[in-house]
Write the structure tokens for this entry.
Amino acid sequence: MTVLLLTFASAALSGMILILLSNLLSFPSLKPKPPPCSATKVSVLVPARNEAEVIGRSVQSLLSQSYFQLELLVLDDDSDDGTDEAALEASQNDDRMRIIRGKPIPSGWIAKNWACQQLGEQAGGEILVFTDADVHWHPEALNAMLYEIECNGTDMLAVMATQRTKSWPERLCVPLMAFAVHAYLPAVGVHRTGFSLLAAANGQCIAFRRAAYDSLGGHACVRDNILDDIGLARCVKKAGLRLRMAEAEGLVTCRMYRDWRTVRDGYAKNILAGYGGTAGLIAGAVFHWVVFIVPWGLLGLGIAGQPVPWHPYWALLLICAGLSVRALSAWRTGQRVVDALLLPISVLLMTFIAGQSMWWHWRHGGPLWKGRRAVA
């Protein structure tokens, strides 16, 4: 049994290393260059529910873009904290920004997806950029995105925003998004094959050509999908359109959460759907325990005098490989490399989050978010 566990972990880590090395060579990055066409109108679309604390900074950064041909539409999704007033104050009466009042959520729609659908219908741009209210934009970010879209014939650009973390729960959990993308998903396969499973996106920043978005029916194609970002990416590939991912390289940044409660609830909202249900989530948890925690346990057993094959070399090799993958993905995406040393704790925390997600599913029929069920 011990040999089987070590062999499985070795095979899994070997695959991760190969994918990560491939992505280090081929994963695109946004570059602050002006686009070939500077007359393209861009609609930046922000769904916002109770975001008064953060939306002002986002609005200011968007209206400070060096690319001036833009409109900014903010949909106030039944907020009760003054989100609309905060956005208007931050805009300083810039006529490029407009507030939209959200309509009641139709049956069968997830709230955010319905908000984005309304924004898309109101937008007048040739390029549609969907972004969250807590995202901050470097002045050259839109230039860089348009350059990437126009120079590569991109229909959907999935920008992987640079994550900002401060508290320990953030530092231990949030970078695992980048870890998953860079260690599990080969960019070459995303960009050059039609397989819809080889698709990823981060809803914090997604851009579409208008024609491509309309051809999908807008967010209607993911109306009941809580993983709307990944769902849209898969819809794009199924339709034969061109999906491209790119690291933001600090041009688009986001601090998603603030403490353990928000980290836990934020990830618990999506993780069950991300693994395809309870069975997949349990299998995923077991996989990560075997690959990233079991080698530590076997190293300890060997030190305690128990028979472990090739002790301590095999276990140590696996431990170093796991930490290296985590560290390299952190380095590539602008995270703290030193936090890779705490990878086993990260796995334990994500296991707890998985349990929270399953509890919500069993107790409430789905995840809870911002005072209401996230799934209609």
